[in-house]
Design goal:
The chain is an all-alpha fold and 155 residues long. Helices cover 74% and strands 3% of the residues. It comes from Novosphingobium capsulatum.
């Protein structure tokens, strides 16, 4: 395993932890500490998957990308080739990954909740699903963004 691959794994693990914690904090801010969580409507469970996915994907691109650029410049991590081409601008890259993530998350959450006929979820189940979703999305997006960042030095 190369230095770059180890860097991607480490940064992805860190991103997963941070985004899981942030997902929990925002869940508590939006849905409180108890009671059933309503599924449908503005600001309710399904709707919240859009902003959550946008924030997780955007931050999973922006922060690890900026830290990886610094590590590349300092020689702490090697560049690596990638077939994936994303914009060099980290803000634009973040938007390109965050917008479709938000749309897919919202559609996916709606489809699952509709198929299951859910009107509300127990608080603990809703929290667990949101924490898991934040971690999994960071697991998917962070390596994509980092591969693009580590390939920048190769032109």
């Amino acid at each position: 395993m190369t230095n770059a691959d180890l860097h991607i794994r480490r940064e992805t693990a860190i991103s997963m932890v941070i985004n899981t914690v942030l997902s929990g904090v925002f869940f508590l801010a939006v849905f409180g500490l108890h009671g059933p969580v309503p599924i449908w409507g503005m600001g309710h469970y399904v709707f919240d998957f859009g902003p959550q996915a946008f924030a997780v994907a955007f931050m999973s691109t922006l922060v690890p990308g900026a830290l990886s650029r610094k590590a590349l410049r300092a020689g702490r991590v090697a560049s690596r080739p990638s077939a994936l081409r994303l914009p060099g601008n980290l803000l634009l890259r973040g938007l390109i990954l965050a917008v479709p993530s938000a749309m897919l998350a919202l559609a996916g959450a709606a489809a699952v909740c509709l198929a299951l006929g859910l009107a509300q979820l127990p608080w603990s189940v809703a929290l667990a699903a949101k924490l898991g979703f934040g971690a999994v999305l960071a697991l998917v997006i962070t390596p994509i963004a980092l591969r693009a960042t580590l390939a920048e030095a190769l032109g």
